[in-house]
Amino acid sequence: MIKSILKSDDFKIKNCINYMVIAAALVVLVVLYNAGELKASYANLLVQIGYSIILAVSLNLVVGFLGELSLGHAGFMCVGAYLGTFISMQLSDVIESKVICLLISMLCGGLLAAIFGFLVGLPALRLKGDYLAIVTLAFGEIVRTVFKNLPWFGKAMGLTTGAVKFTKKDTPLFIIVFITVLVVLFFVQNLVRSKHGRAITAIRDNEIAAKAMGINVTFYKLFVFVIAAFFAGVAGVFYGHYTTPVMYTFFSYNYSIEILVMVVLGGMGSINGSIIAATLITVINYILQKELPGELAALKFLIYALILIGIVIFNNAPKLSPIKERLSLKVLIAKLTSKNRKPEDILNDPAHWDKIPTKIAMDEVLSTDLQPGNEYVPDKPAKGGK
């Protein structure tokens, strides 16, 4: 199964644009960081953008491609943040390298979150629609309440992660985060384009028809749920190494809804849309927190809600569709790459039918003028109608 997921289709540039953009941005950011031009606040913002992209893309697997509504994604992130960071703290006494501790804790935190995803998904995925959303939402609230009352994790004071938090002396955390983003994108996009991805989208389109075609619906639902929980746990580990202390209040149902908003704004089933929406929402939150300190901080959620309403209206209003089409990335790329063919260029045309412009549309009826006396007359049928 892993081989079929990792086996990519025919190489296409358009399928690798997001890789190239993120890799190019990472190279530029590394150069700026080494030159001392990247502020610490912007480096922290990049970490937030990175784990937000991981959360949005992984939730898009469940909501966009599988078609199930989950509101417990922050709960899986909470499991990874607490357990993964706690393991990293224990390893830091034995291993000096914070990067190695982070990589091991990423694997452990992701696996533990995946186990929780399996335990929750096995009974919960028998439900549909609002019922599944309520169960996953309850799971998220239960998880953070449990960690709030466990003495090993600081109870209500939170888990202090100063021993494993990355500082200026260490390798920049945003580099590891964005490399992980590339790995997540590679796995998710190859999964979606594989036969397993087609089975998952078939379940979303019509579950009864998918069962009739022999698709193991229960297996694929659980598989997607576990994979999404694993990546959410990895994002939680990054959060635990980015901030201190790890507070249970961060993983409320409001954050689960915020992740869902990233998926919906970016487009259900659109990986590139999830990347853009996660980046946009994270930057908006950062700007509002920075520009609205003190008493004005109460206006943050009001302005945030108004911005989201404006984006939703812009994406769905029919009268604004011409403007949206003009600003579309595909249209802009088509205008930049289009070549106006001149009549004299047709003489040197390589004679490929897909490159020769025709004056008559292919769906029009073609007629031929016949000379008088050469009209086609059908033969008379023989006796018996033959």
Summarize the structure.
This protein has 386 residues and is an all-alpha fold.
Number of strands: 0
What proportion of the residues is helical, as a percent range? 55-70%
* Count of discrete alpha- or pi-helical segments spanning 4 or more residues: 15
State the secondary-structure class.
mainly alpha
**Distance between the amino and carboxyl termini:** 59 Å
Name given to the CATH architecture? Orthogonal Bundle
> Could you tell me the strand content as a percent range?
under 5%
Instruction: Report the CATH C-level class.
Output: Mainly Alpha
The CATH topology name reads: ABC transporter involved in vitamin B12 uptake, BtuC
Question: What series of H and E elements makes up the topology?
Answer: HHHHHHHHHHHHHHH
| Stretches with pLDDT under 50, minimum 5 residues | none
Average pLDDT level: 82
Q: Biggest sheet: strands, sense, closure?
A: none
- Shape annotation: globular
Gyration radius, rounded: 27 Å
